[in-house]
Write a structure and sequence with these properties.
By secondary structure, this protein is an alpha/beta fold. Helices cover 34% and strands 23% of the residues. It has ten helices and 16 strands. The longest helix has 30 residues, at 3-32. The model is unreliable at 2-38 (pLDDT under 50).
């Protein structure tokens, strides 16, 4: 075939390819028109009760708001006790019982809450390999519980711990051991971060064991104020309490971050002099029992809730949101959730 004919065919092919690419781009722009580029990839909800038995209302609520990710606490980890020759630094307690199967159609993330006391007990052990031992036991227990109560494929495990500066290294080492085991199974590890912990993750680490040990982090935007302080407005979430913490956030250290917001409430009782007396759960408030059988010293009750205005302000101020983040509400409870309108919940999830 003559050279000029080949060149003509090549030019024609390039023109056709260019037109095809232009068509695809135009079609893509038309398809995505009107979509919010900051919309989260997932809508999540926590289940934080010791019995998994959601009501029909709660199941309908999850469908109504298109929840596709469910975070379920499986058990807590506390310090153990010496039994014979075994000195258990950490033991599982408060294990969730299941009266229903976990929904197979949802992406279920099992959560383990680890107390700071358990981390301190682990730190006191002289056995360096103990972290690996407990890591293996926890992963095995999680897998067995999920296999028994859920028919889906496990993709993520989450650890929750209110670690401090003094317990950070031991906790991170345990998480590194767990993450190593999970990665061999194709499972990622996520971990919670409270606002006060943001200042403890943004500096140059000396070794890999000191680095944030999570594939994804979960920032908990609630419990921002001191419960027993009679002078604060709202101990669950006050935007004015959030802003100082966000100044400590360094995106380079937390490139993958999901966020949780409060949709719950409680009552805080004080005496006549403004001293803290007790915490009252939302169910007791709703049933009108907050003043029945109350301590003699109880003189006033402040009701704290995750107020929609403060949640939206916090969402707007967060610097770490991207197209892959998950918005999670805490937690699945019909009494608390019913206090929020459909539009308010949709506003939380649309950010």
């Amino acid at each position: 075939m003559p050279q000029h004919t080949l060149e003509r065919l090549y030019l024609c092919s390039m023109k056709q390819l260019t037109l095809l690419l232009a068509f695809v781009l135009l079609a893509s722009c038309h398809t995505n028109k009107g979509k919010d580029p900051a919309a989260p990839a997932h809508r999540g909800i926590y289940h934080w009760k010791t019995t998994y038995n959601p009501s029909q209302w709660e199941r309908d609520w999850m469908k109504e708001h298109k929840i596709d990710r469910l975070y379920v606490k499986l058990f807590d980890v506390e310090p153990g006790a010496k039994h014979g020759y075994d000195d258990w630094s950490m033991v599982p307690v408060a294990t969730t019982s299941f009266r229903q199967k976990l929904p197979k159609e949802l992406d279920v993330v099992p959560v383990v809450y680890i107390t700071v006391e358990a981390i301190r007990a682990l730190e006191q052990s002289s056995d360096y390999n103990l972290s690996s031992r407990y890591a293996e036991m926890m992963v095995t227990r999680i897998e067995r519980m999920m296999a028994e109560h859920w028919g889906g494929t496990l993709k993520e495990v989450q650890f929750d711990c209110d670690w401090t500066w003094n317990t950070r290294d031991v906790y991170f080492l345990l998480c590194q051991r767990v993450k190593s085991i999970l990665h061999e199974k194709g499972i990622r590890l996520s971990g919670t971060l409270r606002l006060h912990q943001l200042s403890q993750v943004g500096y140059d680490y000396e070794s890999e064991d000191d680095e944030i040990p999570f594939d994804r982090s979960l920032l908990m935007c609630y419990n921002t104020g001191r419960i027993g302080d009679a002078n604060i407005k709202n101990s669950i979430l006050d935007f004015n309490d959030v802003t100082p913490y966000l100044k400590r956030y360094k995106k380079d250290f937390l490139p993958c971050c999901d966020v949780a917001y409060p949709v719950y409430g409680w009552g805080v009782a004080f005496d006549e002099e403004g001293y803290f007396v007790r915490l009252i759960n939302s169910h007791t408030l709703a049933e009108g029992k907050a003043w029945k059988e109350a301590p003699v010293r109880q003189a006033a009750i402040r009701e704290d809730w995750g107020e929609p205005a403060d949640i939206v302000k916090t969402q707007t101020a967060l610097p770490m949101l991207d197209n892959k983040h998950t918005t999670i509400l805490f937690h699945l409870d019909s009494l608390n959730l019913s206090k929020y309108s459909h539009e308010e919940i949709e506003t939380f999830y649309s950010r």
